[in-house]
Amino acid sequence: MTTGDPLGLRVVCFPHSGGSGTAFGGWAAAMPPGVSLMAVQYPGRGDRFGEPPVDDVAAMADCVAAELQRMPPGEHLLFGHSLGALVAYETALLLRDAGEEPRALCVSAALPPGRMTDRDIHRAPDDEFWTTLCALGGIEPAIAGNAELRDLLLPVLRSDLRAHATYRPRPGTRPLTCPVRCYHGEGDPLVDQGRLAGWAAVTTGGFTGAVRPGGHFHVTADSAQLVADVLSQGRK
User: Fold this and answer.
1) CATH topology classification for 2-233
2) Which of 134, 196, 210, 213 is least surrounded by CB atoms within 10 angstroms?
3) End-to-end CA distance of the chain
4) Mean pLDDT within 36-40
């Protein structure tokens, strides 16, 4: 999904586990002129449904960075939610190594790289696994009760959560120099707010945090305010 001027600032959004690029469809109306909204589509969903899912954060990032580097010159602001925060971070490193470090990295609903706590959630039996995910609010009610759709989504969700659980930062990785902004949904049962300051270690360019209402999926609450805050991180 892309909107706006492809030669201006590009806001590149990375969805959560099981999510698709359409998760950021509501952001388009809040984008000012000259700013392009781009949403990453991981394999195994949306228009890439026929592709096998990828259970490796670094491999996901490799593909995104390669696509961005094939585009005409432009500046990037990366926003990643949950699993997407880690993919966005790895993408930022790859862009930095290619001399195209993003203006800012915005991460949401995710512990710092390599610090996920529940590393076995993707191993749970189907019913337990599905119930846990539905309780977080990330599965629409119409889908939650549909056994056929559940069976289609489970492999993708397991793959994404396995990628999250097994991810480890590369040893000796140099910190970024761009600003990093970390968003926390108040009451998020998956993310300990007290540990989010660890994101400061991934950059020398300054770290800030923000708390928003809405729990783990706070990105759906007052998206216009969130977009405005994200864009403010990319101002020079």
Assistant:
1) Rossmann fold (3.40.50)
2) 213
3) 26
4) 95
pLDDT of the residue at 192: 92
Percent of the chain with pLDDT over 70: 84
Q: Where in the chain are the domains?
A: 2-233
Active-site residue, 232 included: no
The Cα 86–Cα 158 span in angstroms is 16
Residue positions counted in the chain: 236
Which residue matches tokens 């959004």? Answer: 13
**108 a catalytic residue:** no
